[in-house]
């Protein structure tokens, strides 16, 4: 076991036992859960993939682009002002974590709680490279729309739970949950839009019908 691997193992076990690694600095980094889009349009009973990221919105004590993530957890809730027929994550098979998080500690979790929320927890395997960047993909959630057009499902991305911490990939494995703000997006259920080929076919049929009508009127 290399020195860096041993250090990662020691810090991970210490965090698991104590729930804390280092005192939090008075200065907070500007981090936020974010979605790939602010609004997703999905056809009635259709499916849409919603990507969730951890994003650094401004410089801070913790630098996501340099330090990266050792582990991450996120929960996407949709019970805020829930419509009568919301879009929802139907099963854990509709949750896909970023494959870079390939470890078994913390234990991988994919969870769906009724129609109100879905979440995931993932960590890195020992020796795996730490993902870095001002925006890091945590995972993707596939939502299935309801059967009522015009319904708007509000999404909120936040901490997975009070017991599970998102941990930085820096030398001190900084706990990050208290530094991360929530992200927001919506899913709008829309009436199916005809494919371009269908529109062309409809236009062709209209032209043929008009042409035949004119010929009959001339006769």
List the helices and strands and how they pair.
Blueprint: H1 3-18, E1 30-35, E2 39-43, E3 47-58, H2 64-67, E4 69-77, E5 95-97, E6 109-113, E7 117-123, E8 135-144, E9 152-158, E10 167-168, E11 180-181, E12 183-190, H3 196-218
Parallel strand pairs: 1-11, 2-12
Antiparallel strand pairs: 1-3, 3-8, 4-7, 4-9, 4-10, 5-8, 6-7, 9-12
Compact description:
This protein has helices at 3-18, 64-67, 196-218, and strands at 30-35, 39-43, 47-58, 69-77, 95-97, 109-113, 117-123, 135-144, 152-158, 167-168, 180-181, 183-190. The protein is α+β, with helices and mostly antiparallel strands and 219 residues long.
Structure, explained:
20% of the residues lie in helices and 35% in strands. The chain is an alpha+beta fold and 219 residues long. The strands form two sheets. Strands 2, 4, 6, 7, 9, 10 and 12 form a seven-stranded mixed sheet that branches. Strands 5-8-3-1-11 form a five-stranded mixed sheet, with no helix packed on it. The protein is elongated. The model is unreliable at 1-29 (pLDDT under 50).
């Amino acid at each position: 076991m290399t020195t860096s691997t041993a250090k990662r193992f020691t810090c991970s076990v210490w965090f698991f036992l104590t729930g804390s690694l280092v005192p939090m600095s008075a200065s907070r980094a500007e981090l936020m859960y974010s979605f790939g889009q602010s609004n997703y349009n999905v056809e009635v009973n259709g499916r849409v993939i919603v990507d969730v990221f951890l994003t650094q919105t401004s410089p801070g004590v913790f630098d996501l682009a340099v330090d990266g993530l050792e582990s991450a957890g996120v929960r996407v809730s949709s019970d805020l002002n829930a419509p009568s027929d919301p879009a929802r994550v139907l099963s854990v098979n509709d949750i896909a974590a970023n494959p870079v998080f390939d470890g078994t500690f913390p234990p991988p979790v994919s969870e769906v709680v009724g129609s109100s929320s879905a979440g995931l927890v993932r960590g890195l395997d020992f020796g795996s490279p730490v993902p870095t960047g001002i925006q890091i993909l945590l995972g993707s959630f596939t939502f299935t729309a309801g059967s009522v057009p015009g319904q708007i499902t509000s999404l909120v991305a936040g901490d997975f739970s009070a017991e599970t911490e998102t941990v930085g990939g820096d030398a001190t494995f900084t706990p990050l949950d208290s530094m991360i703000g929530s992200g927001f997006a919506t899913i709008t259920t829309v009436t199916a839009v005809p494919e371009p080929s269908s529109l062309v076919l409809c236009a062709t049929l209209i032209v043929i019908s008009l042409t035949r009508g004119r010929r009959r009127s001339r006769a």
